[in-house]
Amino acid sequence: MKHYRGYRLTLGWQIMIGLVLGIILGVVFYQNKTAITAMQNIGTMFISLIQMIVLPIVVSCLTVGIANMGDIKKLGRIGGKTLIYFELMTTVAIILGLVVANVFHPGDFINIHQLHSQDISQYVSTAKSAKSHSGVWETLVGIIPTNFFSSLSTGDMMPVIFFSVFFGLGTAAIGEQGKIIINFLNAVSEVMFKVTNWVMHAAPVGVCALIGVTVAQMGLSALAPLGYFIFLAYATMAVFILVVMGLVGKLFGLNIFTLLKVIRDEVVLAFSTASSEAALPRIIDKMDKFGVSQGIVSFVIPTGYTFNLDGSAIYQSLAALFLAQAYHIHLSIGQQITLLVVLMITSKGMAGVPGASFVVLLATISTIGVPMAGLTFIAGIDRLVDMGRTAVNVVGNSLASVVIAKSENEFNEQQATEFAASFDKPKNVSTSD
C-alpha cells in the first residue's frame, strides 16, 4: 500500500475554472437559443438553491445572536453605529465615482448614436413601481412586517431582520425558558451551514452557466465600445477596496489584505454569480470564525445587504456622469451635489428590488437631464459591471462587521490571527491504494 499527497483545488479556483469555461461556452453558443435556455435554467437553479438557505440562516443566527446580546440599549448602540458607518461609506463611494468620472471623462470617448441599444422595459416597470413606494415613510413602514411568513416567502430581508431582532430580545427576556429556542435555532443554523457546504459543490457549474448565458446573449464584440467605461469602473472599485477600505481597516487595526485572504472564495463566488446572496451564508460563517461576535455579524451583514452597497454606489455615480458626458450635458458642482443627495436617497429606497443598481439609475438620471433611452446603451454590459460591484459589496459588509465588532470590543484578535493563518497552509488530500 502506498500513500501520496496531492493538492485539492479550493472553491475559489474551481469557480474561476467554471468562469473561464462559461466564457468559452458563451462564445461557442453565441445566439444559440437552445444553449442559452439550458444555461439560463441551470444558473437559475443554482441561485434558487442559494436563496433557499439564506433566510433560514439569517433568522436562526440573528435571533440567537440578539438573544445572547440580550440588552436593548446595546442593540440600539450597535444599530446606530452600523447605520452611521454604512451611510459614511456609501457617501464616500458615490463621491469617488463622481471624482473619477470628472477626471477621466469616460463619456467623451464614445459616440452614443453608434452603440446598440438594449431592451430595458423590465427595469422601467420596476423603477416606476419602486419609485412610487420609495419615500422615507414608505421605506420605514415597509420594514415592519404585517406577516412575518409572508416576508419570508417573498425574500424581503429587512422585515425578516426586524422580526428576528424582536424575537431574539423576547427570547432573552424570558430567561431560562428561552434556552430551548436558542438551542433549537443553534441546531437550525448548524444544519443550514452544512447544507450550504453541499450547495457550494454546485457553484462552479452554476457560475459556468450564469456567465455563459451572458456572453452567449451579447457576444464579446459588444464590449468593445464600452470597454473604457468597464475598465474605469473596475479600477475605481479596486481603488475603493485597497485605499478607502484599507485606510478604514488600518484605523481599526485590521490589514485589508488579511480580510481579503479570508474571504477570497466568497468574493470570487459573488463576483462570478453577480449575486450577494450567493456569498451571504458563507460570509456569516467566515466572519464568525474570524472572531466577530455572533450577535454583531448576524445583524451587520444582512443589514448591509440593503444599506451598505458600496460597489453599487460607485457604479451609479460613475454611470450617471458617463451618460451625461456621452450626451454632452455639462453638470455644475451644484448639480453634482444634487445628484449625490438623490443617489443617497434612491439607493436606500430601492435596495430591495430586482436589478436595484440599474433601477436607481433609471430613477435618478432624469434629474440631470439624461434621456431614459440613454440607459439602453449600457444595459448590455450591466451584468459584467454588476459582477464587480457585487464583489465590492461583499468585501464592504465583511469589513463593516469587523469595524463594528472592534468598536464594541467584541472582536477576538487571537481567533482572527489563527483563522487567517490557516489560509496560508496548502490544502492537501491524502489517498491510498
UniProtKB/TrEMBL annotation:
**Compartments in which it is found:** Cell membrane
Which ranges does the record mark as transmembrane? 12-30, 42-70, 82-104, 157-175, 195-220, 226-248, 290-307, 327-346, 358-381
Predominant location category: membrane
Q: Which PROSITE patterns match?
A: NA_DICARBOXYL_SYMP_2
Q: Name one GO cellular component term.
A: plasma membrane
A GO molecular function term, named singly, is: symporter activity
Biological process, per Gene Ontology: dicarboxylic acid transport
Q: Tell me how this protein sits in the membrane.
A: Multi-pass membrane protein
Gene3D superfamilies noted in UniProt: Sodium:dicarboxylate symporter
Q: Which UniProt keywords apply?
A: Cell membrane, Membrane, Symport, Transmembrane, Transmembrane helix, Transport
The protein, known as: Proton glutamate symport protein
| Gene source species | Secundilactobacillus mixtipabuli
Protein encoded by which gene: gltP
